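In the laboratory, one determines a bound structure by crystallizing the protein with its ligand and collecting diffraction data. In a computational setting the workflow is compressed into a single prediction: the sequence and the ligand go in, and a structural description comes out. We illustrate the idea with manganese (II) ion.
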Amino acid sequence: MPNPREVPDGPRTRPVTVGLAPVAPVTIGGDAFAIIAGPCAIESADGFRTVAEGVRAAGAVALRGGIFKLRTDRLSFQGLREAGYEAARAVRDAMRMPLVSELTDPRQIEPMRDFVDVFQVGTRNMFNYDLLAELGRADRPVLLKRGFGATVDEWLKAADYVTAEGNCDVVLCERGIRTFEPGTRATLDLTAVPIAKRSTALPVIVDPSHAAGHRTLVTPLALAAAAVGADGLLVEVHERPDEAQSDGAQSLDLAAFRDLVEQVTPIVEATGRTVGTPSSVPSR
Ligand code: PEP
Ligand code: MN
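The predicted complex, in structure-token form:
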């Protein structure tokens, strides 16, 4: 088994391919910059479909959509939970785009494994080593968010809990850390991208949405992420952000997302890569 902590002399990143039939596979960490976009939480099949069609037309290659949400306030919307499985499956299958969704408990692996292409581990669970080891045995790619209080070294060591079980398909995601700065929800630590890439061959993407906390900051942070060498983005988009049941303040509407992709494209190209285009995703 290749050791993903060994950075080879050739191409430094070992690409991770995600997406099971009927989905068109997408590679993260190759020459194409992968933009993953969708709502914080799936709220309805219709809303999710609207966002999915819009982000695909704009250039996203994979979808995000939370089903189980870990909310600080227990009275906040917790996601559709099991009731969201059908909408997630229907939209992902119809769009033929890989779906990234967070799981919070190993018991969710089995019911979600045939329609969730990438299991996301959220910032709160980065230190949940039993969950990580279980995902290491689950035969599905994992998107591992950095804990908001974790060093880069702790984050990479968390990834080792997955890879040590035989699953090397791990994508790291920087999403901001907690600092004394109150102007944003978290401080996006872009230094983490080149630092992580020096010590691991795993792809590293950036989530500008959860760091920003406000939609006006998402595109500038996304541009910086591309410039610093990230392998892609994870962006929250909602068809009507002001009515979103979670993270509306940091969610882009479809027009703002199109603008983000337009602005990020020349920066990605300046770093010798291309933005994964909708043409790389077969239509129905
Ligand atoms: C999310 O992606 O919706 C999420 C909850 O992210 P994080 O775990 O980084 O806060
Ligand atoms: Mn969110």
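Residues 40, 66, 122-123, 145, 175, 210 surround phosphoenolpyruvate (ligand 1) (CB under 6 Å). Keep in mind that any predicted model is a hypothesis to be tested, not a measurement.
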